[in-house]
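Figure 2 data, in text form.
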Amino acid sequence: MGIVTAISSSLVSLGDANLFWKCRQLARCIQSKSFLIRGDRALSSRTGVVDRCREWIGEVSSQRPVQLSQVEDSFIGEKRHLVRWFSVGSLPQTGTSLTSREAAVAVKQNAGLVGFYSDHHVVPLPDGHRFPMDKYRATRKLLEEDAALRGILVTYPSPYASREELSLVHDASYLDSISTGDLDEKQQRAIGFPWSPDLWRRSQASCGGTIAAMHAVLLGVTKVAANIAGGTHHAFPDHGEGFCVYNDIAVAAKVALNEYPVSCNLQSPILVIDLDVHQGNGTSKIFENDDRVITFDLHGAKNYPWRTRMTSNYDIGLPDDTGDEEYLKVLNERLPSVFETHKPFLVFFQAGVDALKEDSFGRLALTRQGLLRRNHIVYSACITRNLPLVITMGGGYSRPSEASIQAHADVYRSAALRYGAAQSI
């Protein structure tokens, strides 16, 4: 390794307000060199300064991610996350030097689940905003601190989706508006977020995580990969709505069709299983005339979207207050025939947990255990058929957010355990 640079308390105090700029200056000095940035125990306690560094940290390449065992076994909490952000690789001029495919190739081959995250991009929201932005980081922390998942779950920062990738689904004028903030009040209200540069960059990373997960499974790095974000299925080619800026599943599916045409085609299509309580109207619209992508959507019949509802290949609306047994009966009856009829090669699972009884926007009445059984129905269908699977997060809006966060974590935890066990046999 060309240059090894250590940042520790003896060199730089994390209490120093100029740390961000010192890091910038250091980056310029060692640009395009191999590097390793380390810290000491003080890193775990100064989260305020860590947050200020996140914008720059998110731009660091991760071509050869540092493993915790390579640094210090005592790295925990915030310190552990920081080690993953400051990874072995090259510092690009701007943004990240990794494409979505390169990010997938850089992943350590894993017997369980590979997860990509973008919560190091912090989107500023006004006080009292109803979207639980903190749930992404909280879900990841639950997973990374779960001793049962050691060795079968690894997490990596998401790459940015490129303009070329996004253009496979979204109109050029819309991409321009999102990147520059040229959105009027009505457009921002439809999306549900006030525009900011952080929203644009996080949306790119969130979409990039799903694309990277797709590459990871189709390149054979792992059989299942996940985005601990994403599932933004209300985004249309020319506009966003319902807390969705870019349609990450649609973009990743389009990239798969372009780059893996031998595997993903009319004879072996892509299957999108959308189990969010709200119909994935954007995804359905995008693929309404493309038989290479099959959309299966099980949702609340009387829930959002009301005026922009579209038609999926399989649209199943459930009445308000549907509970575990009725929900699981419908899923068990309808999903297997979709696999048998279409014989997909690749599966996307939009695993929203807003069907939970505690959800503020859900109107259904599933329990946490019911959602867990739901997840296993999808995993069993893919494992028995040896199909690559990409998982995304989707909605979850309980108040307080703890119920949704636990259910989100269950999605990824159960996948890691199931696939880890299946591949160890």
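Caption note: Residues 402-424 form the longest helix (23 residues).
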